[in-house]
Amino acid sequence: MRMPGTGWGSQSFSVARRNENPAGTGTGSAVRRSRAIRRSLTSGRGTPLHVLLPGITLGWFAVAGLMRLTRSSMLDVLGSEYVKLARIKGLPERTVIWKHAFKNAALPVVTFAALLFVALLNGSIIVETVFGWPGLGLLVIEAVGSRDYPIVQAVVMCLSAMYIGINLLVDVLYAYLNPKIRYAS
Predict the structure, then answer these.
(1) 18, 35, 140, 154: which has the fewest Cβ within 10 Å?
(2) What is the mean pLDDT of residues 76-84?
(3) What is the per-residue pLDDT across 13-31, written as a single tens digit (0 to 9) for each?
(4) Which helix (H) or strand (E) holds 88?
(5) Which residue in 164, 119, 157, 118 sits closest to 140, CA to CA?
(6) Does domain 10-177 have CATH number 1.20.1050.10?
(7) What is the pTM of this model?
């Protein structure tokens, strides 16, 4: 079964973007896009357009992986027996996809998205430095440069706590997405 909207365009986009280096994409896209826009949007926080390049830099790599994983998970689930049974029973295609297929296909996607979220937080350290955004990333870079280790330790602890919290949230979300998964009390 072929899913609508999953043609050669989306596949080639996801493969091409997945194989790029995110750090190289950021600095390269900053220069190319700022020339294309004919404005200096590579640093500063003046307008909403200043969010465009850092957002593309952080999200470009992540979107490709999420697209490929979502597509492959949905194709696996759409070929399963219970989805075929739901179609045979005469359920509308929208109900089959959203209530039966997507909920089960979302498990690996949720796991990957949670890990990507934490990776984006860690990657924002570099992006903030490249684009001149004041934030946690710039604070860490300046703290490393001035050997202010308590600040570096505090940021590492905060990012570690976020990582643990996101993983806990994903584990709780698993019980909602898949009713067969129950945690003992």
Answers:
(1) 35
(2) 90
(3) 555 555 555 555 555 555 5
(4) helix 81-88
(5) 157
(6) no
(7) 0.67
